[in-house]
Write a structure and sequence with these properties.
It comes from Neobacillus cucumis. The protein has 332 residues and is α/β, with parallel strands linked by helices. The protein is built from 13 helices and nine strands.
Length: 332
């Protein structure tokens, strides 16, 4: 089974945004060392506690400080942008870092309605236009517009020796079908979905239409996981992430709290139930337990690869979690 990293660039309560972004770069380096296949960084806008609003900027920094690991967006929020500009940006990255660039595409706003309005006009209309935008982006990446298309003579330069690998990210049958109809690889966000992932991925696999002769369906399942030497320590580490998400849901400012801060935060009955459900949707435990659960998920979803998102207060705990997961999978 292949493993990858999804980084949301969280800012801890004792960090600046610059420090958090530097820890993201170090995480990519460690992921490369531990045997992870790819590192993706997410795009968010004006969300407290999340540092990355421009993945393309971070990918330049990370690419320059790594040598083998594939790097990409998780995801470019396409309704905010013109496909031509996205193709130019990721072709530029693929020119700088040949054979290493992924371009994950999503349709979420990535922030508040105010942020969406500030970023682009008619966001909801662009969501409706998503199928057309995806098709247009693929044509720009492959430079294969039909002869009568208005952009036939337009090149998203610089044209790299190896084009970025396009992925569609989603949590629904709608996204699965869009990926399948365009012959794209598909990343299912299990960590942020209550939908039946098994059925959604089956829909993708049965609907897949190769864009090129050798195209085959490819599936990543993204999960929320925290691993430590013991179940008890992993659960303590997870509490920081859970309390932080509850605080964000209430509109409270601040970064990921320490374990002590999380323990001292008063949850009401409803919030305790929310925390319990969040914990159920996470994979938390010792290396053997986490590896077993990840292997079960890969088999259930027919996934080629598991992508792990881990949020802890301590950067060292986060790196150690990824290390233990890799050791549990690769050396068990």
């Amino acid at each position: 089974m292949k493993l990858s990293i999804l980084d949301q660039a969280p800012i801890s309560s004792n960090q600046t945004a610059r420090e958090a972004l530097n820890e993201s770069m170090k995480l990519a380096q460690m992921g490369e060392k531990f045997g992870y296949i790819r590192y993706w960084i997410a795009e968010h806008h004006d969300l407290p506690g999340l540092a990355c609003s421009a993945p393309e900027v971070m990918l330049s920094y990370i690419g320059a400080n790594t040598s083998r690991i594939r790097i990409g967006s998780g995801a470019v929020l396409l309704p905010h942008y013109k496909p031509f500009k996205i193709a130019e940006v990721y072709n530029m990255l693929a020119t700088l870092f040949p054979g290493r660039i992924d371009i994950g595409i999503g349709r979420a706003p990535g922030g508040s309605a105010e942020a969406s309005n500030a970023l682009s006009d008619n966001f909801l209309q662009q969501v409706w236009n998503m199928p057309k935008s995806v098709t247009e982006l693929l044509h720009f990446l492959e430079n294969d517009f039909p002869p009568d298309h208005e952009f036939k003579k337009l090149s998203a330069s610089p044209v790299p020796p190896v084009s970025p690998s396009p992925w569609l990210l989603g949590t629904s049958k709608k996204s699965a079908i869009l990926a399948a109809e365009n012959g794209m690889a598909y990343a299912f966000g299990q960590f942020m979905s209550d939908n039946d992932g098994e059925e959604i991925i089956q829909q993708y696999l049965t609907s897949f239409k190769p864009r090129k002769q050798n195209d085959k369906p490819e599936v990543i399942v993204t999960v929320n996981a925290i691993c430590a030497e013991t179940d008890e320590k992993a659960e303590e580490m997870a509490l920081s992430s859970i309390v932080w998400r509850i605080k964000r849901g209430k509109g409270e400012e601040g970064g990921v709290p320490s374990v002590l801060e999380a323990k001292q935060y008063k949850l009401d009955d409803k919030e305790r139930e929310t925390a319990r459900k969040m914990m159920e949707n996470m994979i938390i435990g010792n290396p053997k337990k986490v590896a077993k659960k990840l292997s079960e998920i890969a088999k259930l979803y027919q996934a080629d690869e598991i992508m792990v998102v881990t949020i802890t207060h301590s950067p060292a705990d986060r790196v150690k979690s990824y290390q233990l997961i890799a050791e549990g999978i690769f050396h068990s």
